[in-house]
């Protein structure tokens, strides 16, 4: 069965950096686009970034462009999100997701999420 | 950006009753070249990640009870729960994946009356 396990969240000061990781299993990781979606406490859902199967097609939401970098290592079945210049408004649970098909689409599989708190 | 607007923001219905949640997009989600509508519905319970219920506006995910159904076309969509069960208490979101940035509705909180 498909499993997505995020790690790397925590408390960081404004302006700081954090690297999130997502380890995937139960499917051929290298065949699928992968995404990060976040949810601020008590708020709705926000699609942050996606990356295609080979890493040469990448999308960022305007709110994170220039500060966040998505990447993947298909040999390690892993997805990453390097977050720099963090702001209070980046505080959220970050979910690693995979769509129902090989492209982006609707998110069928979700990890349990990792909480990022940006506060002084 | 495509704006997704759900109504109502919250809804209370009795067990066994029909519950209807609406979602309106600021532009059509129908891709004419494949005749597919790029709209999904999710259910989120407290402390859990969202769960995909419906994609392509009306295709039910495997394992989702058939009391859940999605309908609509173009810019107006509906999620219907035909007979509300206690376990359906959750927040429901619609989401468009027609164009980036992929956007979600603000959510509809469903409670039991």
Overview of this protein structure:
The complex is a heterodimer of chains A (120) and B (113). In chain A, a hairpin with a 4-residue loop joins strand 7 (68-73) and strand 8. Chain A is mostly beta strands and 120 residues long. Chain A has strands spanning 3-7, 10-12, 18-25, 34-39, 45-51, 58-60, 68-73, 78-83, 92-99, 107-110, 114-118. Chain B has 113 residues and is mainly beta. Chain B has strands at residues 4-7, 10-13, 19-25, 30-31, 36-37, 39-44, 51-55, 59-60, 68-73, 76-81, 90-96, 103-104, 108-112. The relative contact order of chain B is 0.33.
Summarize the model shown:
The complex is a heterodimer of chains A (120) and B (113). Chain A has 120 residues and is mainly beta.
Overall structural class of chain A, as computed from helix and strand content, comes to mainly beta
List the chains of the largest interface with their residue counts.
Answer: A-B, 19 and 20 residues
State the total count of DSSP E strands of chain B.
Answer: 13
What is the H-and-E element order of chain B? EEEEEEEEEEEEE
In N-to-C order, the SSE pattern of chain A is EEEEEEEEEEE
Please tell me the overall pLDDT of chain B.
Answer: 97
What does the largest sheet of chain A look like?
A: 7 strands, mixed
End-to-end distance of chain A:
40 Å
Name the beta content range of chain A: over 45%
Whole-angstrom Rg of chain B: 13 Å
Mean pLDDT level of chain A: 96
User: Low-confidence runs of chain A (pLDDT<50, min 5 residues)?
Assistant: none
Describe the SSE topology:
The complex is a heterodimer of chains A (120) and B (113).
Chain A: E1 3-7, E2 10-12, E3 18-25, E4 34-39, E5 45-51, E6 58-60, E7 68-73, E8 78-83, E9 92-99, E10 107-110, E11 114-118
Parallel strand pairs in A: 2-11
Antiparallel strand pairs in A: 1-3, 3-8, 4-5, 4-9, 5-6, 7-8, 9-10, 9-11
Chain B: E1 4-7, E2 10-13, E3 19-25, E4 30-31, E5 36-37, E6 39-44, E7 51-55, E8 59-60, E9 68-73, E10 76-81, E11 90-96, E12 103-104, E13 108-112
Parallel strand pairs in B: 2-13
Antiparallel strand pairs in B: 1-3, 3-10, 4-5, 6-7, 6-11, 7-8, 9-10, 11-12, 11-13
